Amino acid sequence: MTTDKATIHTEVDAIRDALERRKRKRMRRLLKAMHPAKIASLLETLTPAQRISVWQQIDEPLEQKVLSHLSPALRAQLTQEAGAGEDTEPSADATGAESTAGGADAADETQLRVVLEALESGKLKRIGRLFRKLHPARIAGLLESLPAADRAAAWDMVEHGRMGKVLRHLHEEVRRRLAAEMEQDDLVDAAREMAPDDLVDLIQDLPGDLGREILLTLNRRERERVESMLSYPEDSAGGLMNLDQIAVRADIKVGTLLRYLRLLEDLPPNTDKFYIVDRGNRYQGIVRARRVLTAKPETPIAELMETDFEPVAVDAPEADIARRFEAQDLISVPVVDPAGVLLGRITVDDVVDVIRDLAEHSMMGMAGLDEETDMFAPVVVSSRRRAVWLGINLVTAFLAAWVIGLFENTLEQVVALAVLMPIVASMGGIAGSQTLTLVIRGLAMGQLGTVNTSILLLKEIGIGLLNGLLWALVVAALAIVWFGNWAIGGIIAAAILLNLLCAALAGVLIPLILRRLGIDPALAGSVVLTTVTDVVGFFAFLGLATLLLL
């Protein structure tokens, strides 16, 4: 009896500690191992707020057993807390019907509303029930849609066995924060559920000590595989590849390969081809799975082998790999080292992530943001990131203001110039942005190189000339009607034409120069372009006005 009391005391202390530190998953593990009567005794001793927090971590199959040991009053209270709001929770059928009738956006909105209402009311079990119905990718989307302060509570309601799959679909910053808040045992268990390439991504996002702890929990073979993948840059073929390829030699027959495949528990995902290697594991070619399945068992693999399928070098950039997958509609490609030894393979699911990341990088980079930025990151963190680009923009704005200040006397004497001045800069900025976007896309897609740059430059200058003449005449006519001054009309027409020609030139050259300097054009191109078009536009307009009107 004494031993039992000591055990109860220890369990109660552990749960109280987990409750105080808000370690919900640890609390859930402890409760799962306790007898229902002990849990009931614990609930009797807690404050109402603590009682609800603990109750939310009790698994549903255990609820009725615990309730049977509680006093009638407490049983009624907890039953009411558990049942409140259940009539508003969408079932799996309702969610599916809403998705069909109103679109996926309506279903997503409903799910997010359920999570937010559950967090506000403290009904965390509703979140757990909803998450059990959803794909890990959708759970990740909901977590990223939550404010940072509420995300940890929702994350704790993800089933233990699915945490690794959800982590795989989270953006880098969110994944890093949630993983850092997890108990080490939970993180290790989640890591064991992940594919090697996803595990590599997770380890790269974690502090060094925590990453090493995860590595040490793996068996020797798994650790060696992960460490070999960690040795390659994250944005290279080596950082993308999986090590689950099926490699065979050319001198075997189809029947032998089929018997080998039947011995496997399952084929690796996206297995559309098998790789042919020699005795030194050097890549020789491929044989497509569909040909193996339809060939006669006595057919030699050598007869089905394709030797012209090019592998990917282990240090190839991920952007080049994405372009090849897109151009050739590939599902997988082999990865080899400089000696031609087969190291692994890259599959289309990883390339889809690369394509998405490249698109987000271009879009977010235009605003000076990182594609992995957490939408609901703390205010101070987000402010610090954006402050850098606001500061850079301020410097460029002062440069444009300095150019205007050079013509202060001109503006004082001809007020109409101040009214029309923004038009010149705006027209140049829009025209330049169009060219800049086109060039950055061409660079990202590998469609623009030293051979055809001059062709594109001449084309963009021609476009700038034609559009410049057209809109110069339109703006000049409007200025003459507005101010009744032919000279001002001619000056703004000339300034717009000059600025559009300069915008075309800058839109082509700025990304090329930035890339040569090792600076990402998507990140810095728009800031530099805006500065150029503002300075040239103001200088041309006010300079011509000073020469011709004063």
Brief write-up:
The chain is mostly helical and 550 residues long. The protein is 70% helix and 5% strand.
Architecture overview:
This protein has 29 helices and six strands. Mean pLDDT is 81; it is low at 1-8 and 84-102. The radius of gyration is 32 Å and the shape is flat. It is mostly helical. It has a three-stranded mixed sheet with strand order 1-2-3. It has a three-stranded mixed sheet with strand order 4-5-6. Helix 15 packs antiparallel against helix 16. A hairpin with a 5-residue loop joins strand 2 and strand 3. The chain has helices at residues 2-20, 24-33, 36-45, 48-55, 60-67, 72-83, 92-102, 104-121, 124-133, 136-144, 148-155, 163-169, 172-181, 184-192, 196-205, 208-217, 220-230, 237-240, 254-263, 289-294, 301-304, 318-328, 348-365, 379-405, 408-413, 415-444, 453-483, 486-516, 521-549; strands at residues 247-248, 273-277, 283-288, 312-313, 332-336, 342-347.
**Order of strands across the widest beta sheet?**
1-2-3
Helix tally?
Answer: 29
* Fraction of residues in H or I helices: over 70%
Span of the ends, CA to CA: 105 Å
| Poorly predicted residue ranges | 1-8, 84-102
Instruction: Please report which band the strand proportion falls in: under 5%, 5-15%, 15-25%, 25-35%, 35-45% or over 45%.
Output: under 5%
Number of strands: 6
- Average predicted confidence as pLDDT: 81
Rg over C-alpha atoms, rounded to the nearest angstrom: 32 Å
The largest sheet, given as strand count, sense and whether it forms a barrel, is: 3 strands, mixed
Structural class: mainly alpha
Q: Shape from CA axes? A: flat
Family: Belongs to the SLC41A transporter family.
Protein name: Magnesium transporter MgtE
Main location: membrane
Membrane topology: Multi-pass membrane protein
